[in-house]
Amino acid sequence: MQERSLKLYNTDKTFFVKISNKLTQLLMPTKFGINNIMIQIKRNNLLKAYNSYKEAINEKNTVKEKSATQKYEETYALYLEAIDKYIMESLYKKVKNNLASQFEKEALSSYYTVVNLKDKNYTEYKYRKQKYLLELEYQGLSTSHKSAQINKITPFYIEKMDSLYKGIIKNYSVQLADNLNKITNKDEIYTKVFDTIEEYVVNILPMKIQQEEYKNNKELINEYDKYQKFLIGKLDDIDTLEKNVILLAISRIIFTHSLPLATAENCYIKLLKDARNMIVKYNKTNKYVIIYNELINFIEEYNLKILSTKVYWDKPDQKDEYKKFWNKYQSIQKITDEVELKKQKEILFIKEDLKFLNRSKNNYKEIIKIYKNILVEFGVMRKLENNVKIGQVKKYKGKILAIHKKTM
């Protein structure tokens, strides 16, 4: 009896299950049609409200703007609700009944990845879910080649996605600045920052630079052109570092308020640390020159884009020290010979970074050794001969210069 019972109920091949599956398959297209119509209606309502909202802002009519803003927010919420309903009632059933395309399967998987953020970080979930729903709808319109509808929704889409990305970046900035809640792995948040900036650069920036406001922004377009070379081929760790430096430069233009100077500085410090580790890693290899040049360029960018614009310093002496560095840098910039200019800048940057490493509590013994060898090669630091017995100390005016190993 037990075997018969298992054979009867533990299978999808019973008469009733077959009938149920057939009915679901027959009803699903109708359900898709209804959901698609509802999304279209909500989209049209949203675009009307959005256009009215933009007109009210341009007219600078406070009363009209308040009413238009409320209407816009209401229609936006209903629009997202309709897309969410489509996923839960239609997309889920298609995947469950094995009728979904690969794109639809991946879309549902991404949806649940976003939903899982709700209990971990509600703020990130709030922004990422809106972003996901808008992306899904926009991609759907793009693949259906409905150019008229795409043209209508694109201005709203760019503005809204811009706002959502800024919200996500700002949330990460808050986490990095929060010293009360000790985050065990801040490197993971730094990775999320760079990944999110890259998402924006790939998905939104190409559309944004077509807008009148950004068409003539040479700095932004130049940085984007630099980034594009990383879209082809597999990247090694040096390529990834160089790419992240460019992404950070783009973020200083786009996410100025969402990624405050203090957070951007921490991101630069993180990348400088990575670059130093790579200098040690690739020392005496054919990749050394590449990463060394990258480090020099990066130190210069860090000083120009971050420290030179810094207003608040933790310690007054740090500000005074930077002023001295800046005066030296300005003086070096007057050198007309390109080879000599490059040499003097390298010496300045290496000496400045060496000061930081010597003050640090971390063990930077390997990179300090490399830096000192570079300065010796440039002739600005002398290498003392190993001519003193073990335990002997070489002194000058009472100061210890070096403790030497016994000469072999």
Task: For this entry, give a set of tags.
single chain; two-stranded antiparallel ribbon; 408 residues; elongated; mainly alpha; disordered N terminus
Annotate the secondary structure layout.
Blueprint: H1 2-9, H2 15-59, H3 62-96, H4 102-115, H5 117-120, H6 122-143, H7 147-177, H8 186-203, H9 205-208, H10 212-215, H11 218-228, H12 237-254, H13 261-281, H14 288-305, H15 316-332, H16 338-359, H17 365-377, E1 393-396, E2 399-403
Antiparallel strand pairs: 1-2
Helix pairs in contact: 2-3, 3-4, 4-6, 6-7, 7-8, 8-12, 11-12, 12-13, 12-14, 13-14, 15-16, 16-17
What does this structure look like?
The protein is mostly helical. Among the domains are: 1-127, no CATH class; 382-408, no CATH class. The chain has helices at residues 2-9, 15-59, 62-96, 102-115, 117-120, 122-143, 147-177, 186-203, 205-208, 212-215, 218-228, 237-254, 261-281, 288-305, 316-332, 338-359, 365-377; strands spanning 393-396, 399-403. 19% of the residues are buried. Strands 1-2 form a two-stranded antiparallel sheet. Helix content is 75%, strand content 2%. Helix 4 (102-115) packs antiparallel against helix 6 and helix 15 (316-332) packs antiparallel against helix 16 (338-359).
